[in-house]
Every structure is written in structure tokens, then in C-alpha cells.
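This entry is passed on directly below:
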Amino acid sequence: MPFSYREWILGGKTFCCCLPVRFGVIAMSAIGILVAGLLSIVLWFQVSAPAASMTTGERAAFVVAGLVETILFLASILGFVGSIVQKQSFIQTYAYILYGHFFLNIGAAAYLGYVVIDFQRNATRVGCDETIIDDEAQNDCRGLLRITATVYIVIAAIVLLAELYGAIIVTRWLNYVQRDKREKRMLRESKRATDSAFSLRPLNRSFYDDSRATSSVYLPLGQRDEEFDPYAEVPRSAPSQHSRFATDRTLVNDDDLRPPPPIEVGYGGGSWTHRDISEEEKSRIELAERDSTTVSLADLTEAEKERRRSEIKSPYGPPSAEEDTESESLPQYVATFPEPQHTPPGQPESLLR
């Protein structure tokens, strides 16, 4: 894996060489609660003072500072709670507010630096150049005022760097929480996929969710929560446009748009239904009841007579159909024998008979 400065700065798990970043977030948020809470109380107390004690610009500056410190106080509470319970949204909010507070402090430090340098310039001119005559004393006075500005710059730089490092610590902890959640999610997905390979109940994927409402294919075992009813009619719809159903037609009926047959089909064989069977039985019973009554032969119509003749059954089976074609007559041969001839006594027998 190539070296990355971003990973080196924001991807670590410790700070100050060995301390865990979670401890740093907890400690920094606790300190922020105390410091920001105290500063917000002081600033709002100063704002509530009589209007004659400060100008309009000063009051506006105190109001803005009070709002900033109050927001930092609330964000520190979120960071403290989020670092304990590993709440990603709380830690992320705390990190964003810390970076915003850092940039605001840069602007405030620059403005205060300008004020301090301007004060040093005026103090040097009034207190050193115009008041002190000795050159050595003037140099000492200028050096003292110069040290004051230098001390402010050093303190402001340390505070800003400390706040930036604290924001980096929070970012490291946020990245760690995100990586940990991502790894746990991948582990759950992998375990679910492994378990589904040895289970009759497949995963709840969008593949089945999309096809369940548009396809008439029965899902694998265990997909449906309700009990299977063999007498329930299955709604038919247009075939799914999913690639699986477009290529694999193993379980798909080729005529999906044909309306389903009645539920009674299959009882009695063929295409007989309960309704057909009941109507046939009723007609047979009515016919039997009508035939059981004594009816005169003269009252019967020709169609009824023909029907009754056709219903006469022979023990030799149904009569065969008459053939229309005439069979060719075969020659008949008759064997004839001559009568025996008797020779009178005293005459010789003929050689040929």
C-alpha cells in the first residue's frame, strides 16, 4: 500500500505517540465543556451589563463571542457523549464545529494581533520616544514592548495549534468509528451470505422483492410467511423483465397471459368441473324419473322412440356400422359325385368306368 500523508495524519489510532484517540476525545470534550461553559457565562454576563459601559461595536463583539462559545459548549457535550457510546453522528458534528471554531479563532487571533501591534507602536512612540530622553533607556523600553507582542504571537500560535491537533484527534476517532462500522457491516454480510448457502431460506435481496410482485414464479421454500394453500388461485401477470426470467424459463409457464382454469378443473378427469358433473347428474336423475312413469306408446314422439331404441343394449355389444360398399361375390364350387353303376350278372366289367 503506498504511503499517504492523509492516512498518516488522519488515520492513526493514537496521539502523543501512545495515547488512544478515544481517550483524547473524551478528555478534550470534557475540557471544552468546562472552558466553553465558563467563557459563555462570563460573556453573556458582560452583555447583560448596562449599555453605557460599552459601545455598540463592543456589545456586538461580545454577543458574537458568546454565541460562538455557547455553540462550542453544546458541541463539546455531543462529543463527550458520542465518544463514550461511539455515536458517529455526534462525533461528526463535534468535529465540524471544532474546525469551524478553529477558523474563527484564526480570524480573532489575527484581529487581536493587529490590535496588539498597533498598541505597541503607539506605546513605543508615546512612552519611549517622547517620554524617555536617554537612548539606552529608550532601547530597553522598545525591547519590553516588543516582547509583549512576541509573547502574544507565541501564545496565539500555541492555542491555534493545540486546537488544530485536537480537531485532528477527533477526526482520527471519527475515521476509526467509520472503519469499525464498515468492517462489522461487511462481516455481517459475509456471515449472512455464508449461512444462506446452507439454508433453504435465501437472503432478502431486492432481486426477490422486485420479482415477487411482477412474476408468477413460485419462490424457493421458506420465502413466503403464509401457509401454502393448494386451492388458492394464483394471480397471473405479464412475465418479468428481469434478465434471469428472460433467459431461464425453467419454472415459467410459456403462456403466462392465459387466464387460469377454474379451481374445479381436474376433478373427474379431463376438463370436467364440479358444475358440469352436477348438471350431468341432475339431467340423468330427471331422465330416470321421467322414464320410470308409464307412458303410452302412442304418446311418444318419433324422436323419443328413436332415442329409446338407441338406448336398448344388447349383451353382444354395440351394433356394428353397416358397410356401404358391396362385397364382391366369390364363385361357389359344388362337389358332385356320379351314381354307382351295377353290372348285370354274366357280363364282364368295363375297363373304364
Q: What stands out?
A: The first strand starts at residue 14 and ends at 15. Residues 15-134+149-182 form one domain. Confidence is low (pLDDT under 50) at residues 210-223, 242-252, 323-327.
